């Protein structure tokens, strides 16, 4: 690594945590507008985080060190993932943690500790949230791995940056498996980021919540970290969707102008994803929990077909 | 080394009057013996020499023939390593049996068990192999029924005994076929002579070896003995059985399919892939439904054997196409997972043993809150849980990653049917990883987190020093094997490349400490970078947040529970945790649920006690083993007609046989 790469590495590492609250705010705002509400300003999530960091916190007397350590670890894991995936340029040679399986299993690492923290407080909500979260996460794994594998097989590498570069240079004729894999990935995206029809990010109703149930006992700075980490995860999955399946426009070099252009384009693509997710969330109902496996197996089967079409 | 184990075994037997002395003597010599084995095998692995010992005896065919090649050295190292730490653990934990059961007998069978496993992986003569194989099965049988006053142990032992001998019958059949084809029982001579065998013979050897060694390895549907036998033994024995002994089945599969039997057919590898996928998925689903901590871990052994078979199967498919480079990759993945599973499964069983010793129950629903009472055990169990769930940066992740890569290469290399089987194997491996994580969130969360669910759990205390030391050693190994996976892989690649059928495997993989690159850069990853990255990020976040919020206070208070009283019954149970996944998999698992309600009076309006019993139908018992047993009974029933018990009848049989033989001889000449 030479000196000139350092600013771009900083951009790469800081981009996800810096922008993730914004896109959460955008998604909420679009949803509000679609529901004929004014909605909170798009910068509201930043204010919430600042407010939470300034508050004292209460920790359950039943909770152990694991409950206290989990938010830091989960947030740190999202930082590592954010630094490992292609964001605005494919020219940062991350051959250390940029393998797609590494990213998928790092996500699982975060989920593992999130679920343990949910159980640790000993409340009925946390335990059920963990149970549901692990169920959804376990069943998502197949579709997620195979949809990304489709791209890896097309581009003959499992490195995410290299996949992004290769897919971008493909002719339009080879798009059938990519589109199928994208459908499969989108289902996994909604499941992993706790969106409709899997989970309702806006509710605290005990019968429906998954993610919120696990972080129910958190307050103050640890709640801020948990919320922020979940925003990071949201942006990470959108970035994967945008840059792996539709990589056109991502910078192939480390020069200032292309990178800034790519950044603008990246923001535009993410906004489109947010719009799509907001439309989905406003137009369909949450599925019954035992219907979720059908959807997740659909995701798995679609990517099996996609891989079958790769030659 | 043999002498040390012998001294350990018989010394312990002699000292059985004194529990303490027997424990010290038996386990210290086991430590010394496995320490020697570790040094010896480590040296052989690194230097690459092949010592051979042959002691001929006066019996024909039978000679004490040991050969210590790379593969043997590798398995020897795993056995020594796990045996070493289990012996350290046993020194501290066997105290629970003082005065209840004979420690001398335990020490005797323990030493015999370890040494027979070591001989199994070094034997180089089929007859000698069968003898030590039998000794291993018998020694472990006596260890399973060690707690002989428990009926469950005796039942588990009997099932184990029968299954092992049914398996051994198939193994003997396989060796007899080889003897018939080559006229020798020496592995070296068999390898030389078997190349020209007919496809029928080769297939017959493949199938009988698969069944025979599959019983030992615990592949589904031959696994029925495993979930009951492993938990019945004392915990350090369970750790050895689950971590190491079932691997001897894997060892012999590798030995026969990759070293002795040349010219593999495509369907062999595909069969292994299908069995591996099935075993891993079903194993983890059964584990999810278990509430007995040790049975849960035993089912995870089936799952991990499945993962090892996925690596092995891919290697066999590649080798049937002559793609030796890829086959070496698959085999290295299988070997890596074999070693990793030995470390984390041993750690988990030892941790479970500590928990059971502290709480005196194996029922997971009775635990809870142990992280405060047994903090170190909890930490080590957490490390083991993370490793078995394949979470980076620990060793379990790396070997699953490697297995994934071997399977990816299969998808790239083949068409149609083979490709589909590889894709489905990848899918099953991915689902298995997710389900294993779910299962260990349950196992760790219900056992160690939240509030104690019973009196026993509330009064548990941390286990003794030596058991904790053994667990710490295994936890360090798990982290070390993860971080230094590049270097370990380099050694394993040489082991895999040393197989007779994989000669000429080029190294398209670059394994360094810094990073590992598969197939000329198809996939690159760096375990140290992941390790350092996660740790550094976590430290940075912690420091930044605590600087930012240093004026904020942290108070503790009761968990919010909608205003009602907080009791342990509010917590989620293990049954509740896994019920949703079991309901989803009801097609395969066939769960059953019975509801019983007792009423206050005849009106059936006011229930007094309600009980719900949930369990799984044992489909293997119903559809495979029961019909098999019935068939055996019917055949045996037919034989009773001949066995009249009348001595005159028997004399008639002898006479008829004699006449028959005379006629036969007459026809011959």
Written account of the structure:
The complex is a heterodimer of chains A (311) and B (669). By secondary structure, chain A is mostly helical. Chain A has one domain (3-309). Helix content of chain A is 69%, strand content 1%. Chain A is built from eleven helices and one strand, in the order ααβααααααααα. Chain A has helices spanning 6-34, 44-53, 65-84, 100-120, 124-155, 160-168, 175-192, 211-214, 220-245, 256-283, 292-309; one strand spanning 57-60. In chain A, helix 2 runs antiparallel to helix 9 (220-245). The longest helix of chain A has 32 residues, at 124-155. The mean pLDDT of chain A is 90. By secondary structure, chain B is mostly helical. Among the domains of chain B are: 264-545, no CATH class; 571-619, no CATH class; 624-668, no CATH class. In chain B, 71% of the residues lie in helices and 6% in strands. Chain B has 25 helices and eight strands. Chain B has helices at 2-14, 19-47, 70-93, 103-122, 126-144, 151-182, 187-193, 199-217, 226-232, 235-260, 266-288, 293-320, 324-359, 370-373, 375-388, 395-413, 416-448, 455-458, 465-483, 485-497, 527-548, 574-584, 586-589, 619-642, 647-668, and strands spanning 52-56, 63-67, 510-511, 516-518, 523-525, 554-557, 591-599, 607-616. Chain B is globular and about 105 Å long. At the A-B interface, strand 1, helix 3, helix 4, helix 5 and helix 9 of A face helix 16, helix 17, strand 5, helix 21 and strand 6 of B.
């Amino acid at each position: 690594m030479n000196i000139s790469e350092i600013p771009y590495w900083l951009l790469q590492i800081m981009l996800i945590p810096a922008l993730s609250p914004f896109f959460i705010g955008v998604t909420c705002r679009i949803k509000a507008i679609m529901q004929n509400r004014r909605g909170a300003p798009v910068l509201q999530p930043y204010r919430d985080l600042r407010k939470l960091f300034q508050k004292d916190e209460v920790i359950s007397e039943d909770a152990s060190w694991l409950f206290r350590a989990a938010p830091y670890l989960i947030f740190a894991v999202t930082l590592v993932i954010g630094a490992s995936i292609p964001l605005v340029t494919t020219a940062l040679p991350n051959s250390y943690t940029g393998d797609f399986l590494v990213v998928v299993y790092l996500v699982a690492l975060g989920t593992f500790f999130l679920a343990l923290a949910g159980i640790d407080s000993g409340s009925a909500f946390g335990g059920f949230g963990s149970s549901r979260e692990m169920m959804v996460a376990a069943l998502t794994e197949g579709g997620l791995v195979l949809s990304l594998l489709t791209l890896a097989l097309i581009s003959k590498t499992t490195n995410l940056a290299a996949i992004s570069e290769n897919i971008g240079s493909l002719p339009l004729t080879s798009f059938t498996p990519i589109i199928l894999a994208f459908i499969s990935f989108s289902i996994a995206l909604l499941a992993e980021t706790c969106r409709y029809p899997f989970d309702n990010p806006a509710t605290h109703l005990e019968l429906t919540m998954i993610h919120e149930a696990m972080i129910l006992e958190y307050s103050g700075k640890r709640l801020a970290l948990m919320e922020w980490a979940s925003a990071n995860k949201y942006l990470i999955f959108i970035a994967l969707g945008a840059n792996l399946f539709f990589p056109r426009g991502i910078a192939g070099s480390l020069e200032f102008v292309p990178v800034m252009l790519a950044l603008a384009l990246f923001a535009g693509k993410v906004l489109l994803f947010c719009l799509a997710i907001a439309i989905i969330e406003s137009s369909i109902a949450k599925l019954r929990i035992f219907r979720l496996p059908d959807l997740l197996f659909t995701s798995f089967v679609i990517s099996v077909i996609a891989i079958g079409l790769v030659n | 080394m043999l002498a040390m184990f012998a001294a350990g075994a018989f010394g312990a037997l002699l000292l059985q009057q004194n529990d303490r002395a027997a424990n010290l003597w038996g386990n210290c010599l086991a430590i010394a013996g496995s320490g020697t084995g570790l040094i010896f095998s480590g040296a052989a692995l690194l230097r690459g020499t092949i010592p051979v010992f042959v002691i001929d005896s006066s019996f024909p065919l039978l000679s004490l023939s040991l050969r210590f090649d790379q593969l043997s050295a590798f398995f020897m190292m795993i056995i020594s390593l796990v045996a070493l730490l289990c012996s350290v653990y046993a020194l501290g934990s066997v105290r629970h049996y003082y005065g209840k059961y004979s420690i001398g007998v335990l020490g005797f069978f323990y030493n015999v068990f370890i040494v027979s496993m070591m001989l199994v992986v070094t034997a180089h003569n089929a007859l000698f192999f069968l003898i030590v194989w039998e000794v291993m099965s018998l020694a472990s049988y006596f260890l399973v029924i060690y707690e002989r006053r428990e009926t469950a142990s005796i039942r588990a032992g009997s099932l184990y005994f029968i299954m092992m001998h049914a398996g051994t019958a198939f193994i003997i059949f396989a060796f007899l076929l080889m003897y018939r084809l080559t006229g020798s029982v020496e592995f070296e001579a068999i390898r030389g002579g078997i190349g020209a065998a007919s496809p029928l013979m080769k297939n017959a050897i493949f199938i009988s070896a698969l069944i025979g060694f599959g019983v030992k390895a615990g592949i589904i549907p031959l696994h029925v003995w495993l979930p009951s036998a492993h938990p019945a033994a004392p915990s350090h024995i369970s750790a050895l059985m689950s971590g190491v002994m079932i691997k001897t089945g894997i060892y012999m599969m590798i030995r026969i399919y990759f070293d002795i039997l040349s010219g593999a057919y495509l369907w062999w590898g595909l069969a292994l892939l299908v069995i591996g996928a099935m075993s891993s998925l079903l194993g983890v689903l059964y584990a999810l439904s278990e509430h007995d901590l040790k049975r849960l871990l035993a089912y995870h052994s089936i799952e991990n054997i499945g993962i090892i078979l996925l690596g092995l199967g891919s290697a066999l498919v590649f080798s049937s196409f002559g793609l030796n480079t890829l086959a070496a990759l698959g085999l290295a993945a299988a070997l890596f997972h074999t070693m990793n599973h030995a470390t984390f499964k041993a750690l988990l069983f030892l941790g479970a043993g500590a928990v059971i010793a502290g709480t005196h129950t194996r029922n997971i629903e009775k635990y809870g809150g142990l992280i405060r009472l047994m903090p170190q055990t909890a930490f080590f169990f957490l490390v083991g849980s993370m490793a078995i769930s394949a979470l980076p940066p620990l060793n379990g992740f790396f070997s699953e990653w490697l297995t994934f890569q071997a399977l990816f290469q299969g998808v790239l290399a083949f068409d149609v049917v083979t490709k589909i089987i590889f894709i489905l194997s990848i899918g099953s491996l991915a689902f298995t990883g997710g389900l294993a994580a779910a299962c260990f969130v349950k196992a760790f969360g219900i056992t160690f987190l939240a509030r104690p669910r019973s009196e026993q759990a509330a009064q548990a205390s941390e286990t003794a020093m030596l058991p904790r030391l053994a667990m710490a050693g295994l936890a360090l190994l798990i982290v070390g094997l993860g971080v230094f996976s590049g270097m370990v892989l380099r050694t394993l690649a040489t082991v895999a490349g040393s197989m007779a059928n994989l000669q000429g495997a080029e190294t398209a993989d670059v394994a360094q400490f810094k990073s590992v690159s598969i197939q000329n850069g198809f996939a690159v990853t760096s375990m140290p970078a992941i390790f350092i990255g996660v740790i550094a990020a976590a430290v940075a976040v912690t420091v930044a947040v605590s600087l930012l919020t240093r004026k904020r206070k942290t108070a503790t208070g009761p968990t919010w529970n909608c205003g009602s009283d907080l009791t342990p019954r509010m917590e989620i149970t293990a049954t509740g945790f896994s019920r949703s996944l079991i309901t989803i998999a009801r097609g395969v698992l066939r769960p059953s649920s019975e509801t019983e309600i007792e009423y206050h009076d005849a009106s059936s309006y006011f229930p007094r006690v309600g009980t719900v019993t949930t369990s799984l139908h044992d489909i293997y018992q119903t559809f495979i083993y029961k019909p098999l047993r019935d068939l055996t009974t019917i055949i045996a029933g037919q034989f009773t007609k001949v066995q009249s018990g009348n001595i005159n009848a028997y004399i008639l049989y002898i006479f008829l046989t004699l006449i028959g033989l005379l006629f036969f001889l007459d026809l011959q000449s």
